[in-house]
Amino acid sequence: MQVYLNVYHIAKLSKYTATVGMGIYHSTIEINNLEYSFGKGDEEGSGIYTIVAGTSNGLVLCERKLLGICDKTMYEIECILVELKKEFFSENYHLILRNCNHFAQAFAYSLLKTRVPRYINRLSDMTHCLTCILPPNIWNRFLDEKRPLLDNKSSCYS
């Protein structure tokens, strides 16, 4: 089976920031005309979801990349997803630390032992690095207050 990485622009601004390698992306893994992704749902449980390929909530598809040919059966793929659901549950979603791009990377690696292009999650990676520069109370206001990126005692220099 062919395995594709589908990359969508999340914001109109992303089309412009992508030219300097800092796009804001939503990514999915496509197998057999189904896209698998991860997000924060309204209910507890798995944040992994499946949609028909090409119906990603009106987002603009900016790239569809063939990652490889998977020799696994659908049963084996479902078993992989069961394992990933233990790690990617709805309450575990975090804009910087665990998002759809992290899931796409984990799923692609589980299927094909390959990585998604680094630019897909570059903004998240760079933002995470900045936590050493700005105080935690700034990050925690910007992000999800229920799941702060850092507690006020954490520091890169402690």
UniProtKB/TrEMBL annotation:
Domain PPPDE, chain residue ranges per copy: 1-135
UniProt KW Hydrolase keyword: yes
InterPro entries, alphabetized: PPPDE_dom, PPPDE_sf
GO biological processes: protein deubiquitination; proteolysis
Classification via Pfam families: Peptidase_C97 (PF05903)
Keyword entries, A-Z: Hydrolase, Protease
A Gene Ontology molecular function term of the record: deubiquitinase activity
Homology family: Belongs to the DeSI family.
Record protein name field: PPPDE domain-containing protein
Source species of the chain: Blepharisma stoltei
